[in-house]
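Supplementary Data S3. Sequence and structure tokens for construct A.
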Amino acid sequence: MPTSLPVHVIGGGLAGTEAAWQIAQAGVPVILSEMRPVRPSPAHHSSELAELVCSNSFGAKESDRAAGLLQEELRRLGSVIIHTADHHAVPAGGALAVDRGVFSQALTLQLAHHPLVELRREEVTSIPSEGIVVLATGPLTSPALTDSLQQLTGLDYLSFFDAASPIVVGESINYDLAFFASRYDKGEAAYLNCPLNKEQYLAFREALCQAEQAELKDFERETAQFFEGCLPIEELARRGEDTMRYGPLKPIGLFDSRLGDFRDPANRDKRPYAVVQLRQEDKAGQLWNMVGFQTNLKWGEQKRVFQMIPGLEQAEFVRMGVMHRNTFINAPQLLSPTLAFQKRPHLLAAGQLIGTEGYAAAAAGGWLAGTNAARLALGQEPLTLPETTMMGALFHFTSSASPKHFQPMPPNFGILPELPQRIRNKRERYGHYRDRALADLSQWQHSHDLALQVARA
């Protein structure tokens, strides 16, 4: 049944701004609540909507790159964020970058002057119990609203400090060196293991100790002190020569069966001195997480040092390790691919709060949550995007990944379903992913054309 109540969007970042715009463009009244400037944020510098906090770049703009494909999908779906970014773009080589002050001001004016948008400068301290609501409060969700969300779900679901390990594309791993094994051959050989001899281990440890770290912001530094049990790999390296070997690089019980029987004393010298383990990140086994490798090293340093690990010499990283303030929900336990809460279909979420990373990904979540909120208000069924599109793959991942090991994910080709044919050339392979995604998006738009026209009437 259609509702006469306005949809309530909480949070005026990229996701909330996009969601509010899509709802209003569908002809549905929307209340957009943003706590700034009533309650300042430790990361923001203005009270404008959609402020770009970290950089002015949306990433690579070519559509055969993951970020660029996501931008192109949003462009074709009428994203106000991408449209405004295109309009206020500045030279940045192969990236889509904007004049961030003008960009945010333009979006603030657009939303403030839309006849169906009511912009409220207020802190929302609890999730409304009635009506259709979109949560888009980002990684700096206020403590009061965080408590409300935790009470709603009843889960210990939030990561207040995102200590995440790098994720590697499976195709880029050297399987001549890496081997599948479980410790002492117990259970399924679910881990991929990269063995190091003593010389390799000591060189790797020295590189970790000397690598350059990223600076934490003041408010992140305050939070980091609570994570003694989740130390960065470089800190473990500094604590002693063997600390990593008794921690995440423990070699005990791990042996490459291709070298013989691990129980044979004759194979004692073949046992690794240390082992880096990788855990499967997605159902298809296209992505692998470096177990225990949360790190605060700069991204370029991570790539340089981690490619010293045997088997990862040519590793392609879809996300680097991070340690920063980042509140996000355990989306696979809570959300459907429509971005609605499974147990409360009229409550939706978008942006970094659901475990996506990047400006374009935030806008994508805002587009889908806003579109589906409007459809719910109009008495229509919510939409699910094709998994072969970057948007669809991203939200399929956030709703179906392992809840136990869920970490935020940026757009990347590793989450897309595999192509029917194997293509070794990476640029050519990505081009095929793009062509399939855009063709399927076009067909999907056509199949929903009547419904979308109604929703936007």
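Construct B, processed identically:
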Amino acid sequence: MLRSNQDSPRIRCQPGSRSYSEEMSSLIRLRLLPRARCFFDEPVQVKVAGLRSRQAVTMRARSTDERGVVFSSSATYRADDGGEVDLNRHPSLGGSYVGVEPMGLLWSLRAEALHQYFEKGKALEPHVVTISVHEEEGRVLAEAANERVLLGDGVTRLSVNEGNINGVLFTPPGPGPFPAVLDLNTFMSEKRAALLANKGFVVLALGIFNVNPETVTEIHLDRFKDGIDFLQRQPKVGSKGVGVISRSMSAGIASLLSVFARDVKACVWINGCGANFFVPLYYKNKQILSSLIFDHSKVIHTESGGSILKYAFTNPLAEENKGSLISVEQAKTQFLFVASEDDLCWDSKTNLDEIMKRLKRQGKDNFESVYYPGAGHMLEPPYGPFCTSSPNGVLKYKTVWGGEPRAHAAAEVHLWKKIQEFFKAQLS
């Protein structure tokens, strides 16, 4: 979809007149390659042609999330001698980012207000980003819409309300059999599950919390074990076992499922903790873990109004926390452990270091680990807006998540490919 802001004039005008400028803008072409409609996790090449040689322009992007909050970004570019700007080759000279960043306009999208997370949890509607080219004074020269699809053709989406299970099931087209993945989120989101289904996985998305966390006094592992059993009953699912993917608080649930559910064959653990957190955890009506102590006095409040929680989580290995420690060394699951080194929500790196020490002491080799310097807590599928800080639905702080935007965006691209390779190797 390509639209210039003026119709072509009917007469040729002399340089310097307003109509001449309008005629020139009608020749400017903004292209999104290989196509304007793509999957959410695919890159696009942004190219502008028809500019004057060495002309300076501003590229802008704009998108609205599910709550109606507008996110935007901008970057200044200078056309080459042929009057072209290619974000794959040319550097941004200023704005939301600098340097050669082909997808910079997307990952640098931000709301005007502080502490905003881009809400895109529903899979049915695409993530639409309007990209435009502007003269230095702001006049629009060309505009195009990038539709970033979460649900591929033929992938079915089914709401599931069965017993303890309240989630969404995504199934790829074709007869199968397909590998199965349980996608655990602290709060319900369909994005990651839908994108994995596009890659050939049957995925059940579940949220740890389906109600206000303030009303929750205990969490039962049975509900997530039921999700594993539900996946294995699906007619298109193969028989090799189930994978689990998780981040943050849900990573603890995932590692515990790996201990208690023998059908969990592969687990992706992203920026988790080595202990159970928030409320006691139960299985078969018996408490199996207490909750890690959180010291509110050690929360660091920043000038922006955001809070760094990293130092408020007490040591899982301390005597008073021993009852919350997750015995991951008892699992026979294959693990992919992932830690962001600039995580300011909690100390993912130290937690992962301790987990690996315990596994190695037990002679375990059923794991691999990846560390991302410069990345923050909120590792997600790539090319979404980078979130600096946002309200924490569990702890009620406006939480600073950490991460340097460029390094974080690169980590998401690398990790997303790694996750797919890991699940295919362990579950196919």
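The CA atoms of residues 229 and 263 lie 9 Å apart. The radius of gyration is 24 Å.
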